[in-house]
Amino acid sequence: MTLAAQVARQLAARARWRPLEIVFWLAALASIFLLPSRHLILTEIAILGLFALSLDLILGYAGILSLGHAAFFGLGAYAAGLLAKYGLVGEPVLALFAAGLGAAALGFVTSFLLLRGSDLTRLMVTLGIALILREIANRYDWLTGGADGLQGIVIGPVLGAFAFDIAGHVAYVYSLSVLFLAFLAARRLMNSPFGLSLRAIKGNSLRASAIGIGVDARLVAIYTIAAGYAGIAGALLTQTTQFASLDVFSFERSADVLLVLILGGTGYLYGGLIGAVVFKLVQDALIDVTAQYWQFWIGLVLVLIVLGGERVKRLAAAAGGRIARLVGRRPKLDAKAP
Amino acid sequence: MLTILFDGIAYGMLLFVLACGLAVTLGLMNFVNLAHGAFAMAGGYVTVVLVNRLGVPFLAALPLAFLASFVLGALMERTLYVHVYAKSHLEQVLFTIGLVFMSVAAVDYVMGSQQQFVGLPAALQGRYDVLGVGIGKYRLLIIVICGALTAALQLILVGTRFGTRLRAAVDDRRVARGLGINVDAVFAVTFAVGSGLAGLGGALGAEILGLDPIFPLKFLIYFLIVVTVGGTSSITGPFLASLLLGIADVAGKYYVPKLGAFVIYTIMIAVLIWRPQGLFGRVTAR
User: Fold this and answer.
1) Which residues in chain A are contacts of B265 at CB distance < 8 A?
2) Interval A151-175: pLDDT, tens
3) Contacts of B214 in chain A (CB under 8 A)
4) Residue B222, Cα to own-chain centre: how many angstroms?
5) With a threshold of 0.95, does the pTM exceed it?
6) Which residues are paired to A244 by β-bridges?
């Protein structure tokens, strides 16, 4: 067998759907019918999951540390809101694409700022961009409503047929569908040679460029894509809540999504989704107990994750190994060649 | 015009005292401490409690604020931070953000979310008028205190044995350790003093910057700007950076209020693109 054929086989094996994944999406599908009373929070979970997924693309796969990912989320949110409010694009799906493209364009432009410098510089630049956008949204209040938020948004029916209802059933099905399609695309992309080259860059960018991977071009590409994803997540939030406020750009949002992703684990795409489920359920429970101070517990979780992370990781790895043995092993890249 | 310059200098000096501890932490251990502002907030609230509730004179409360944050910093460093130094930047960021969230919620819980004011003695209110330049008494005090501190820091750093050890450790941790310098102890002391200074800055700045539970988040970006623009290899770098930032911010708010905070963010990003090591930083080969 030629090397090319072996590589192709490895890639195909990597991309195969595993039983647990199918179970996961079946459960998501079932939630539409089994939990109709919980659709509002499920919608939030789907949106947060998409947002965390987009952060996973750059953090988990390319190793870019960002504290300002809310910049793209917020841009998407305001773009969708403005498009709907001024009747430019009445149909939500089209507006979703437009908002995603807008955020991706911003991601493309700003990605060049991230190519130089260390982790700290990247933190600062991403944080700065989010702050600048928030400042813009605050200043141009004739357009964005400033601190009052963007009000009076009326969203048309999805695909011209399904109008949003008050109980949020349409919103949930719509968000979940978008999440699933976006996930499929991300999964396909990350199992492609492009995705593998990103992992190589994260592992060691100097070596990656030594074996002929164009590091800068790939980082720009993935950052642009991730920004587009975040924009779509933001647009979904505006469309399902019919409201956008300055809060979408906030530092807390960037930090929360980081926590969500870390809760679920980076670098395997499901981390953001699982983290979103856990985060929202915990948040929901905590808000019932202490509405004002739930941030304290979020902070405590972050601190504990870092301090106790090694131990938990080892436990999780052991548990994961056992589950993997039960449901069929996941093929390794370094499996012996015949 | 000169009044704005004066206010800007006072503001910049304040920022320097607040942020210099962070610069050393970052330069010495390559540790990203986003929770630095929490120590400043602690100092501010200690002053508020001492002055407003217990009736301690303002000037006597300042050293106590320093001491409180110093002890808090030393405790946190020994119990929590030591475990995180060796971890990745991502984990350091998560850890310190977690601390910030906890401090914000805890202060909110204990003190309430409203803004706090320190009762200044009458002697510190009002302003002198020197050749048509209005000089606020309180701001003058800030400049005097912060200027003295800066000079003292510089003298300690250059003139004492401890300062020599610290500089050696910042330049190359491994070699310094190899020479028999107890880098961990140097760092613990530096961290505590840096936190103490932040606390003092928080106490002094409560009047000018405003003190409420989200203080660590609100001024996080300012501290980081000072550190990244100034570089972490000396204290003159952050000092000049804080002065620049202070003057630019005050002047920006005065002359182009519509642009607001926009000016400094843009400057920061431009500087970071132009010189990722900071304006005054040396390019190290690490």
Assistant:
1) 128, 131-132, 135
2) 878 787 888 778 788 778 889 999 9
3) none
4) 9
5) no
6) A150
